[in-house]
Design brief:
The protein is an alpha+beta fold and about 400 residues long. About 35% of the residues lie in helices and about 25% in strands. Strands 2, 3, 4, 5, 11, 12, 13, 14 and 15 form a nine-stranded mixed sheet that branches. Strands 7-8-9 form a three-stranded antiparallel sheet. The radius of gyration is 22 Å and the shape is globular.
């Protein structure tokens, strides 16, 4: 989200060289960089949350957003090829014998009918393509129900973030690598580099988009909050042989399984996960990764007992979230802004939330000279009505937006 926000502001700022992007050194270790690239509502909890409308709006804007990014980068490739942006058959499978699963399924059905959504297709039992993959289910599949979506997409998260990094540099944004923002006892903000050099940045406009660093700053600024950071891990496997017979060159398969995991088939690989590693355990410790890798491996072996499971690699990273699963978005003070805690939806929400942050940034700072062609946000209607933040006192953080 930090790169996307810097990109949107730089695109509309007459002096992008005044923008400083602070990187602790975790771009390549972020959850977004190592994600499976799913641009959809991940899991039933997101489908039922207030974020769904925003995710749908944001993901539908991706083709235009990628076109703008490609133009800045100066790429000659087609946008779809440059970012590996492709459509995906998306299946949500529910075990109706499980009361909790059935309750979620019923709520989702009611919402689809209420919204007159015509993109969801209801399937009795397990879809044939997953049976062909060897998905292990009981002989009687009658109590399984599937909702199938045809208009979802995936993207190469690595290629997207690499292009965003190139784009902000081309636009003139300065990048402070291996640096952090901190606050001293007098309440003054400062930029600290790894070699110990300090530079006071009091009075400058600061947008917080990270997880752990934002959490520490909020505490030092005496803001109560419920911002946490989990470490996600997923498996990347060699594709099953049976997949060659049930997919074509333009389609990928994504499945949201009853065990709360997702499975994505793309690029002759299968992405399976993800699993959350508690912050108390060191994600970068080899024994910790092995422990959670074995959990995922056991699960997928039980799901597909007829397949030979071959692990290519594991990948993942930190992903900040708020306890109510909604992002923290807005401005805290006259010069401190916040755009974080997107959890599993950072990629999906990047065009919308980065664009909206840029729009709010310029509208609230009349002294900042912006380009005349700054466009309105991607959605229609009032932002507060569009994005219900709930009473702030219930969310545990004082926000002004």
């Amino acid at each position: 989200m930090g790169l996307s926000t810097a990109f949107e502001i730089a695109c509309n700022f007459t002096k992008p060289e005044k923008i400083l992007l602070v990187d602790e050194g975790y771009f390549v270790n972020s959850a977004s960089y190592n994600a499976a690239g799913v641009l959809a509502t991940q899991g039933a909890q997101f489908f039922l949350s207030p974020l769904r409308k925003q995710i749908v709006t944001s993901t539908r804007s991706y083709p235009q957003w990628l076109q703008k990014l490609s133009k800045v980068v100066g790429a000659k490739e087609k946008v779809d090829d440059l970012f590996e942006y492709s459509s995906v058959d998306d299946y949500y499978i529910y075990n109706l014998n499980d009361e909790a699963e059935k309750a979620v399924y019923d709520k989702r059905c009611r919402r689809l009918k209420r919204e007159n959504a015509n993109d969801g297709i209801f399937i009795e039992g397990i879809p044939d393509c997953l049976k062909a993959m060897g998905l292990n289910t009981e002989k009687d599949c009658s109590y399984y129900q599937t909702i199938y979506f045809q208009n979802h997409h995936t993207i190469s998260s690595k290629k997207l973030l690499d292009c965003l990094l190139v784009a902000v540099e081309k636009l003139g944004v300065k990048i402070a690598h291996s640096s952090v923002i901190d606050i001293d006892r007098k309440g003054q903000l400062k930029l600290i580099s790894t070699n110990g050099e300090e530079q006071f940045i009091h009075g400058k406009q600061i947008i917080l988009t990270g997880g752990n660093r934002t959490k520490k700053l909020l505490e030092k600024l005496s803001y109560s909050h419920r911002l946490k950071s989990l470490q996600g891990l997923l498996l990347v496997l060699e594709a099953f042989d049976s997949l060659k017979n049930i997919t074509n060159q333009n389609k990928e398969i994504m499945t949201h399984l009853p065990n709360k995991r997702y499975l994505v088939q793309k690029d002759n690989s299968i992405f399976y996960g993800s699993i959350n590693i508690p912050v108390e355990e060191d994600y970068y410790e080899e024994s910790v990764q092995k422990k959670y890798q074995d959990i995922l491996l056991k699960e997928i072996e039980e799901l597909f007992p007829s397949q030979t499971i071959k692990i290519k690699r594991t990948q993942g990273g930190h992903r900040p979230y708020n306890v109510d699963k909604l992002p923290l978005f807005g401005f805290l003070t006259e010069n401190i802004w916040i755009n974080t805690a997107h959890y599993k939806s950072g990629l999906a929400l990047a065009p919308l939330h980065a664009g909206k942050m840029a729009e709010m940034f310029f509208k609230n700072l009349e002294s900042v000279e912006r380009k005349s062609e700054l466009k309105e946000s991607l959605f229609e209607g009032d932002w507060k009505e569009f994005y219900p933040l709930y009473p702030i006192r219930k969310r545990g953080l004082k926000l002004f937006s």
